[in-house]
Amino acid sequence: MELVLVPAGEFTMGNDALVQEMAQLFPGLELTRLQDLRDETPAHRVRITRPFYMARHEVTVGQFRQFLAGSGHVPESVADGTGGYGYSASYDPSATRRGDAFEGRDPRYSWHNPGFAQTEGHPVVNVTWNDAQALARWLSATEGRHYRLPTEAEWEYACRAGTRTQFHSGDAPASLSAVANVFDADAAPHWPKWQAFALPAADGFAFTAPVGRFAPNAFGLHDMHGNVWEWTADWHDDSYYARSPQDDPQGPAEGGVKVRRGGSWHTWPLYARCAYRNWNAQDTRYTLVGIRLVMEAQ
To answer: How many CB atoms lie within 10 A of CB 275?
Structure first.
């Protein structure tokens, strides 16, 4: 796992753009979608007081396979027998109660089968927060260093890499075409219902892309936008930013769901921004969700 040293520093966490400004950046979206971003506010100053190492890339299929072989860990999608989620060309979201874009849970789908082809260099998906914790514990014990999931503040600080814009590549969604694998002209034909929300560019990947195929941010980190959502250590709370400490916030002391960040190959640009917050239960396994770890600097 290649690591990048992220220096200590200070940044503005969250989104301070007005709804009207967001509407100009993301025309065509319903106003309610832009109004539902309240958990990104208030924008507030945060100090990351200690440097840390962050993985340059998301955890790959090959790395996860090595972890399973070395540790004996059984991923939750296999251990509980319910499987994960996956893409199927014959699956019709409109015929289901939830209208989910993917089929599952189903034992056919797991970390090694998301319904589309992946090589050892693609980011692993269908991994739970608990699987990520197990990986961090095993790496820590194996290497004698402290690996863990990033805090939500560390993740956003690392994603921004000194920028103040909606994406580390700029404010315009079009800027993502050089740095991110998001829902675009290659993926949209598989989900024509959402074609209008696709980035009007083609990157050659209808599903996940091998890690590191897109330009990195100023810290040298790849795929901080898109490819797969990345688990963080924090519980989610809509109102946490209003009371968050300035130095090294760790998130709420308790909660029901864990934050994930960054968007995925199936994510509209609005939801792949630096400040966007999403969440899932700790046992969620999904074809869009993966892992990126940090290692504490000694």
So the answer is: 21
